[in-house]
Amino acid sequence: MNRVLPCVLMRAGTSRGPFFLKEWLPQDEEARDQALIGAIGASDPLQLDGVGGGSTLNSKVAIVSRSSRPGCDLDYLFAQVGVGHRSVDTRPNCGNMLSGVAPFAIEQGLIPAQDGTTRVRVHNVNTGSRIDVTVRTPGGRVTYDGEARIDGVAGTAAPILLNFLDAWGAVTGQVFPTGRRIDTIDGVEVTCIDAAMPLMIVRAADLGVTGREKPEALDAEPALLQRLEALRLKAGALMGLGDVANSVVPKPVLVSAGDTPDSITSRYFTPRRCHASHAVTGAIGVLSAFALPGTVASGGHRLPGRYPLTLLHPAGRIDVEVELEGRGDQAQVTSAALVRTARKIMQGEMHLPEYVFSRPDETCRSEPAEAPKPVTLIVPTRAGGGNDTMARLIAARLAPLLGQEVLVDNRAGANGAVASEFVAKAAPDGHTLLLGYVGTHAMNPALQKLAYDPIADFVPIGLIGSSPTLLVANVEAGIADVHALVQRLRQSPGSLRYASAGDGTPPHFAAELFQLSTGTRMASRTSQGAAPAVLDTIDGRTQLMFPSLFTASPFIGAGTLRPLAVAGAQRLAALPDVPTLAEAGVQGVEVTQWYGLFAPAGTPEPVVERLNALLNRVLQDPEVVARMQRQGARVEAGPPAALAARVAAELPRWQGVVAQGRLTHPEPRVLALEESN
């Protein structure tokens, strides 16, 4: 088996994945799928051994060849590869990856480029549908540079026009495969539609939500997810798709009113998690249901013609022009056009690991049934920050000791309350754990009323470590030291802005304590987590931040953040020239961020003892210790009682800070879900 294959890695729409010519891959389907599993690194939930991104959005593959279908130029086979499990699903289509097909094919010599623009007709092998794709090719060469902007992607790029020609009924043979535009399943009205992607559409209000919640808030509602999945399974059978328990189609969608008569709000599930933005094919389906009369998503009466419609999703909007023919029950959508962008990231050789070809087929097939249930480590912040980095470091070492997969699940929102509430309500069986820290178990509960008790609702597994807090500045802000900062704030109150990771988080508390101690005032900018807050400071949207050394260390080393002071009792060995705030004349600002592992209350003691023992083994690993030290964190292994004592001491301390500084949130939030509405 050839284990070195040509490959092009592309960002296509809001997805990313490897693009292959069909001839580059093994022609046998089983061997091809094994190659794709190896390319993405599907066996590992982090996908460290491949080019996947640990998410379904980045675990996609496009396979392209000259078309065998008359009137078409290219065949495009889309493959959705598993995240943490060895699977390849070629039943769905992906409109985002589609946007990279024509540029890729032109550059590989499958299609001659025209001067100006080149139109390519693509046959989607998954669904049998045809799409016209128009690409900019000035001088007969593909360009990725341009002025088009799509929500969910930074910067601009050349526009790529996708015009779906016959995506309606492509999978099941009918636009409404049940024969009805509205079905009632378990007392809930749904629309089952096959338009670019088989969908089950439900009014958000019918399931007790607004439909405008953030994805992490919806993901934190297990009852909602379970009900959606139950409806989806029955909808799949009604649509003639059979048992869809192990399939990603039909996709469930929650819809609600848009901002204008020509817009609709959508929350698209993949199918068991809410999409961070929205699939293009899903947008075609939702807007088809919106344009046509008699569905749960219908947006009013429309005569035959072309209509610019808008789908609102968590990351922005997707604008689609649809063409309607016929009236009433005879109305149908005949085409849908929208703009995407793409970019070639790199081109070269893909080196596949030997193990993906060496496992016998029967072993692969029996994995889902025989593999032990994975442990899910819930992280209360977005990917990229210190908490996330620490969680992934621990998970990677803990999994082989447990003999189980350890999946890292980022559930940001409500300053850690979404994740904490989720774990507090989870089954106390050792399969759902929380990477808690000073924010979730001391600061946020001290600041406001929450729907969880940081002591009563959790069992401590063990401390992981701690990291001091720093005062850092944007390198171009002209702030040389703490003295200059205080003088500037006193001369011009509110002239500088600090980055907060959210109310009740360490960066927020440290900034408030600094202002109380110095008698100064700063403006604030709140981000959903430390990682975006750090980026705000680097990019100059804010001038200051109080991150942990664990979070800030890579950026200090790269010279993109300037350390001004340590918010602790002593200087740091890693930054010996950086004074403490006390040395700089600012008293009372000592904030240490600590991290620990928690389980839901009621978790059996033997389970807690085993997890604690294995966690301490991880924390004794020299590589783990060195990695944490390099990034400014100190390992603190110990028994569960040590973590319990830390929480018991820290909670009243921060309650006292809140009372002293009168920092109590003016409108206490009882439920994290309410905050996200």
UniProtKB/TrEMBL annotation:
- What CDD domains does the record point to? PBP2_Bug27 (cd13578)
EC nos: 5.3.2.8
From the Swiss-Prot or TrEMBL record, what is one GO molecular function term? isomerase activity
TM segments? none
Q: Per the record's keyword annotation, is Protein biosynthesis included, yes or no?
A: no
Q: Name the UniProt key words of this record, in alphabetical order.
A: Isomerase
Q: What is this protein called?
A: 4-oxalomesaconate tautomerase
Organism, by scientific name, is: Ramlibacter aurantiacus
